[in-house]
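ZP: hey, is the adenosine-5'-monophosphate-propyl ester complex queued? I don't see it on the tracker
AM: it wasn't, my bad. submitting now with these inputs:
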Amino acid sequence: MSEVADGLERKLEGMLEIEKFEPSAEYRDGALWTDPAIYEEAAADPVAWWTARAKELLDWDVEPTTGLDDSNPPFYRWFEDGRLNASHNCLDRHVAAGLGDRVAYHWRGEEGERRDVTYAELLDSTQRFANALKDLGVKKGDVVGIYLPMIPEVAVAMLACARIGAIHNVVFGGFSAESVRERMEFSEAKVLITVDGARRKGRTAPIKQQVDEQMGDLGSLGKIVVVRATGTACPMTEGRDVFYDEACAAAAAECPAEPMEAEHPLFILYTSGSTAKPKGIVHTTGGYLTGVTTTHRHVFDLRPEEDVWWCAADVGWVTGHSYIVYGPLSNGATSVMWEGAPDHPHQGIWWELVQDHGVTILYAAPTAIRTFIKWGAEIPGRYDLSSLRLLGSVGEPINPKAWLWYHQVIGGGRCPIVDTWWQTETGAIMITPLPGITATKPGSATTPFPGVSADVVDERSGEPVAEGQGLLVLEKPWPSMLRTLYKEDERFVETYFSRFGKERYLVGDAARKDGDGYLWVIGRIDDVVNVSGHRLSTAEVESAIVAHESVAEAAVIGQSDPDTGQAICAFVTLAGGVEPTEELVEGIRAEVATRIGKFARPKRVIWADDLPKTRSGKIMRRLLRDIAEGRALGDVTTLRDPGVMAELERQIAAEGDED
Ligand code: PRX
């Protein structure tokens, strides 16, 4: 360790003792919200408070006269009689206000390309593409799939759908074509928008070709639109496939935004749950836009006319939907959009982008921060990061050491950190500090946003826990909440509103409440694993592994990992007569990459002659977690065959020997 690194390490160790970080007077004085009375004001009448935000921050074609309709819980509806268009709120209203020349996205490509896309340009492209979609037969209420890398066209595609009332279903570019097919099938998508090829760290993946291999016989999918992003040669099927640029060139230039009912679905986003089948989270227009616009403005203390905002997520996840596309555009902000990875072309690229564009607010995941810690503080130290004034964290618990590093090394000790807790289901940030008001504690997302009621309850009785651990719940409906699971109303009720009734939303996370009422999110209580902030279901990975011809059975757990938060660990039983080999491990990993995506590949494979099961045949994952993490085993008396654990212990010891 260098002397500088050693000094930093000692400084951070010392700072671990600091319990609370108050907002600096300098910061507080300039912040948008500085009066804690906002919490009481919102709590006194949350529906009225949210309705006021909806009217204050959005442009309605018809202003709502109603707030919350809770006549049929848990199917809550917000601003029912209001009408608005999300694309109008993100584009037209800013251009009409004379902000057409403001940059919406400073896009930066992996090979050093720069494209500054203004609000006026984004509006033009969106109108043309909305007309192109209409020309392809897309109508209000139709589902349109989007499988694109981080290029400006991804925002155009989403906004074009919103403009005409089509429901977009974006699939993260890291998912495999097979996952895309599944999501198109579940949602009965009519059109898919994709690319010829996608770049990643200097290589180009032939996306359209991969899509074709999977999509051939999907009846509902009538058209595929292909953005020419890399010039990669790709097969085009006559009558079905069209190039994006050609479709836009042939389309009319003007497409007025159509006013939508507030409850008109804006998008579906599939996310992982307890079973192998992903859940299609449905968000609607008015409530969602209210949630993301309010939180983006106030959690990040945004001043659209001067800030340069960078949410370093992918548009394919909810973080990207809410804080790369809808929140920032609705607020008229200027964002950085980065196509690539954090280590290509070099490990300082993020900081080079911050310096080049004068980024003022950076929103990133703890897994990225831990990676930067590993690479060393001297890399960001080479760049001028003095433009930064606020930092955000999202996606997983941030360990206090990483929080302090982020605060000191990236934020120069002057930037408040907002650790924001939320989910695909919540649409917008729910638990978070307000940077001009809240004293932060490293590792805690602190308290609910105004108008949100969260609590920690006892897992059996459902009674609130005064101090200590329990299950996290959201006590009252909020505008940006999911409305249902696409075409699975029953599953929606069962998943979120059966354990504690229809008025309390079960989050699926365990949390702790401290003496100050601060919330500390611990992690999932279901079989969902969080790898580098990517949400995966163990059942989904298991079903991909057993698809391998040599595998008889598999059990997957999330094991804690210093870099990725959790990592996939798979216990695999091979088919009779098959011998375990290194090639098989690679074969299993490849199977998972094909069926789900590379990010879901198991980091560790443990061969198991048998798996620990109860007498009724249920795999006891708790024991697998204990054994993988080297902990003392919990109760094994309910096992059908307690000898299985001894055998697994031998197997793990052998694995250690091989290292
Ligand atoms: O377990 C929580 C964790 O991520 C889950 C939601 O994942 P997803 O729907 O993919 O959305 C991620 C981005 C919003 C939650 O149930 N999580 C998210 N943010 C935090 C977090 N855990 C602790 N602290 C956070 N700030």
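AM: back. The CA atoms of residues 67 and 203 lie 50 Å apart.
ZP: great, adding it to the tracker
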